[in-house]
Amino acid sequence: MPRKASVDAIREALRSEMQRDESVVVMGEDVKLAVFAGTRWLHREFGDERVINTPISELAVAGAGIGAAATGIRPVIDLMFGTFLYLALDQIANQAGAMRYMFGGQTKLPLVFMTVNGSGISAGHHHSQPMHPLFMNMPLIKVIVPSTPYDAKGLLITAIRDDNPVLFLSPLALGSLRGEVPDETYTIPLGEAAIRREGDDVTICTVGAMSRRCMEAARTLAKEGIECEVIDLRTLKPWDKACLLRSVRKTGRFVAVDESFPVCGAASEWAATVAEKAFQHLRAPVQRVSNLDVPLPFSPVLESAAVPTTERIVDAVRRCMQAEPA
Amino acid sequence: MSDVQPAVALDIYRRVLNIRRFEEEVGRLFTAGELPGVVHLYIGEEAVAAGVCAALRDDDYVTSTHRGHGHVLAKGGDLNRTMAEIFGKETGYCRGKGGSQHIADFSIGMLGACGIVGGGMPIATGAGLSIKLRKTDQVSVAFFGDGAANEGSFHESLNLASAMTLPVIFVCENNQYGEFTPARDTMNIEDIAVRAGGYGMPGHIVDGTDALEVHAVVNQAVTRARNGEGPTLIEAKTHRRGGHAEGEEAFLAGQTYRLPEEEEMARLRDPLLILHERILHEGVADAHALENIEQETTRRVADAVTFARESPWPAEESVLEDTWA
Lengths: 326, 325
Prior knowledge:
The complex is a heterodimer of chains A (about 325) and B (about 325).
Chain A: E1 3-5, H1 6-20, E2 24-28, H2 42-46, E3 51-53, H3 58-69, E4 74-81, H4 89-96, H5 99-102, E5 111-117, H6 132-136, E6 142-144, H7 149-161, E7 165-171, E8 178-180, E9 194-197, E10 202-206, H8 210-223, E11 228-232, E12 235-237, H9 241-251, E13 254-257, H10 266-277, E14 287-289, H11 300-306, H12 310-322
Parallel strand pairs in A: 2-3, 2-4, 4-5, 5-7, 6-7, 10-11, 10-13, 13-14
Antiparallel strand pairs in A: 1-8, 6-12, 9-11
Helix pairs in contact in A: 1-7, 3-4, 8-12, 9-10
Chain B: H1 6-31, H2 46-53, E1 61-63, H3 69-74, H4 79-87, H5 120-134, E2 140-145, H6 152-163, E3 168-174, E4 177-178, E5 181-182, E6 203-207, H7 211-226, E7 232-237, H8 249-252, H9 260-268, H10 271-281, H11 287-310
Parallel strand pairs in B: 1-2, 2-3, 3-7, 6-7
Antiparallel strand pairs in B: 4-5
Helix pairs in contact in B: 1-2, 1-10, 1-11, 2-7, 4-11, 5-6
């Protein structure tokens, strides 16, 4: 199978859907030149009408996407850095997520917001924040954080075909990572986790860029005889509760690893769910490994200290293993 | 004097009267404690919605504001379903999930009222983009108030619509108050229409209490938009007859905020009386014909109240309906 970078997988997904459905348009700042390359060259095939360079005007561009989606267009809005979503929040939170429900089911909003997410390239706080927990907290918005080029393509195609607002948050740290991606079009259902590694001792649940780090931790721990099951959720809303709970019921130990701020992060939601639904299966307290509660620092040394490191994940698993049942 | 066809004038009159009698009834129902939540009445501003919507087709789009009942009705919305939504009933436009500030009727291009000041403007702009991409000759109208003209969404929407030459008409209902604060205290310009120049589009000021004048100005903007020539900003100077919200006395705690001379103007410049007078004066119709319209309107509003009162509450289970498509 051909090996491709995430941005190439994203471009293939967009190209596939633009060929398939002429109501699909891509718009955002510099989508033609394309800083992250996912939308690059598309205008040559689909023209300026369907690949639209917009002003740096996130609120209006997001709202325009909503208005267009409500009236027969299937927009993919590329807002570049995840943090720029803050500028569009009124339209996303008050309108996109609510319109269908608030208007009694009168409309569908087939709409994708696409940005990079999280840290990893010393981009500083304004270009490095993990955005997914904010949107998990908004009713009726779907949230995707892929961790491989294969998933990026299949999930983005699914997102574009979905009739609801979807946030497609592509990990910044994985931009150049290559992986196997078929040339043909395929979809991956939202809400279906991938078990990256099976194991009987500890369940590690994660998403996005942390997936690789959890796998590194699992390999280290395997040398000590600790077998981790690593679950990559791939989509945060809807999310595969059943997969996580099945695993925790098997292993009896749970470590939630998420690259987001610790208070009300994604890990908090997973931990609460395990506490509610699988408490009696737990043999050790749940552990969370999240970002430190500080803005993302610039220096590579500080930046990597601020997000979950392989060492912190390994330590959390060891704490789980050392805890004795009461 | 604008050159108005008699049929158009009577059509506009029906829309103005429809809104007026409907809103008066909503006010009474609120005072009587029959309505949940809060309502913002459109009384005094009817000429704007009526004059604008009479220049539109059913397949044209509008987005509205927190003071949105008038826009729904002027665009051709059903009185029964509008009233039922304000009551929070299952038969309402949004099955009781939206309420007064979130009424929409997508079947007539009414893309929603909006509780966030300026929130509808980017959406109307997006409907304009959709029109351009689908290559139809529809137009899209964003209604908003003077308060919204200080929001980022106003500036971003005007710029985007102009940069992309979209068929959008931005209609500012300058009722001279942003909630309880006079507009003159919150912007250092007299006319919001001048801001059009900053975005490279025409800006017009119109007497927003004269529905026929509004209609004439909007017609020009509609023609421009349908011809693919881009957006227009129209500032309709108008007056809010009542307060920001019904029942506001409860939290005003005895304070007043209306300027006496402005309040007097609001009484004098009554859009219903102005239109009534013009229709009689110009011989468009006689008093008898207008009286018939009055009776018919009053009856339809009364029917809407009965419909809403007798409609069932939403079933509790419906709280989880209308979620993901």
